[in-house]
Amino acid sequence: MGEAPSTTASYRARYRSEKIGRWYSGWAHFAFTNISSLAVIAFAIGHVHHPSWKELLVVPIGFFISNAVEYLGHRGPMHRRRRGLFIVFRRHTLEHHHFFTHELMSYEGSRDFKVVLFPPVMLLFFLSLATPIGLVLFALISANAGWIFVAVAIGYYLSYEWLHFAYHLPESSPLGQVGALKALRAHHQAHHDPELMGRWNFNITFPICDRLLGTCYRKEGSAS
Fold first, then answer.
1. What letter would DSSP give residue 223?
2. What is the Cα–Cα distance from 188 to 186, expressed in whole angstroms?
3. What is the rounded distance in angstroms from the CA atom of residue 95 to the CA atom of residue 189?
4. pLDDT tens, 116-163?
5. How many CA atoms within 13 Å lie on the side-chain side of 103?
6. Does residue 221 lie in a domain region?
7. d(C-alpha 93, C-alpha 85), whole Å
8. Domain tally for the chain?
9. For residue 51, how many C-alpha atoms fall within 13 Å in the half-sphere facing its CB?
10. Cβ 99 vs Cβ 194: under 8 Å
11. Measured distance CA(194)–CA(196) in Å, rounded
12. Quick check: 102 and 192 in contact, CB under 8 A?
């Protein structure tokens, strides 16, 4: 059974008092995520010149790689203790999943953004993942291919942040009524059920790998 709403409310109050600093600004956090990510994407795209159709194939390939990394990272260290990565497990499973359950998915104020958005330093972490692959493509294919991959990878990171943020908006919000977002929110909401989170719905953005690997949850309990 999931946590009772009153228990989640108590956890939220304690988390806010103990974990969210006095000077934290949710909107500043959200702005930094957007501005810094868009700056990196613009910088990468600015170095792409007259790409060929073969170089543009990096877009769908990079998108799929990003989806797989999201899936494996979420199914792995975010939900399973790994040596040297306990902080990832703690922040996601022990904090995010206690702050937001399938019964209480919405944040209650901008200070709660801290529990939804990645810490700002995570942009550097994702850059450290994207850059080596970009350099390999730069060396083996072309400079365009390398820069396109970096743009796609950071664009995927930003789409993750936007979509995850949207899922934790109040359900009655205008975005919450958009058909595609409503379906994606339901996919993520099922994952927030404590009985399901360790086995189902590990894609946060687009459930591509969930479908390919049979981890899409359906109410009747079968995978799609």
1. B
2. 5
3. 16
4. 999 988 888 888 888 899 999 999 999 999 999 999 999 999 999 999
5. 12
6. no
7. 12
8. 1
9. 22
10. no
11. 5
12. yes
Tokens read off for 223: 């995978």
Calpha distance 206→164 (Å, rounded): 11
Q: 174 lies in which domain range?
A: 5-212
CA distance 65 to 61: 6
Q: At residue 24, what is the residue type?
A: Y
Amino acid (1-letter code) at residue 118: F
d(CA 52, CA 132): 22
Q: Give residue 116's identity as a one-letter amino acid code.
A: V
Q: What is the pLDDT of residues 23-78, one digit of tens each?
A: 999 999 999 999 999 999 999 999 999 999 999 999 999 999 999 999 999 999 99
> Does a structural domain hold residue 224?
no
Half-sphere exposure of 106 (CA within 13 A, CB side): 9
User: Greatest CA separation found in the chain?
Assistant: 57
0.85 exceeded by pTM: yes
> Phi and psi of 221, rounded to 5°?
90, 10
